[in-house]
Write a structure and sequence with these properties.
This protein has 4 helices and no strands. The protein is mainly α. It folds into 2 domains: 32 residues; 69 residues, no CATH class. The protein is extended. The chain starts with a helix and ends in a 9-residue tail after the last helix.
């Protein structure tokens, strides 16, 4: 099997799996309401995923060395305030990423720690 045909098979498999995961809920729940458990998961999964991402992102922060996690804390507070104010996930994600990169790349908070 050539590399090209292998790659085409991989792409076709991934496309089929993606389509199936999108189409199956419509097939299974076309004529009835989804189970209560599924509704609970649907409601609570996004905040749980965001909490896991937050924990993962903060796991390597050096809290006892300058800048003592200041860029991370400032970004978290800013993103939280922006999201509460605007209720726009994409704005929160992009603004938070941009703000954090600005704080880290240009060492904006260095004046706090001498």
């Amino acid at each position: 099997m050539s590399e090209t045909s292998y790659m085409l098979m991989v792409i076709a498999t991934v496309a089929l799996a993606t389509f199936a995961t999108r189409a199956l809920p419509f097939v299974f729940f076309n004529s009835r309401e989804p189970p209560e458990l599924l509704s609970t998961i649907e409601k609570n999964l996004p905040p749980m995923i965001l909490l896991l991402l937050l924990i993962y992102c903060l796991k390597d922060v050096q809290w006892f060395q300058p800048p003592y996690g200041a860029p991370e804390i400032f970004t978290i507070v800013s993103v939280t305030a922006l999201h509460v104010w605007k209720r726009n996930a994409m704005l929160s994600i992009f603004a938070g990423t941009g703000l954090y990169m600005l704080l880290i790349q240009f060492d904006v908070l260095s004046f706090l720690f001498g």
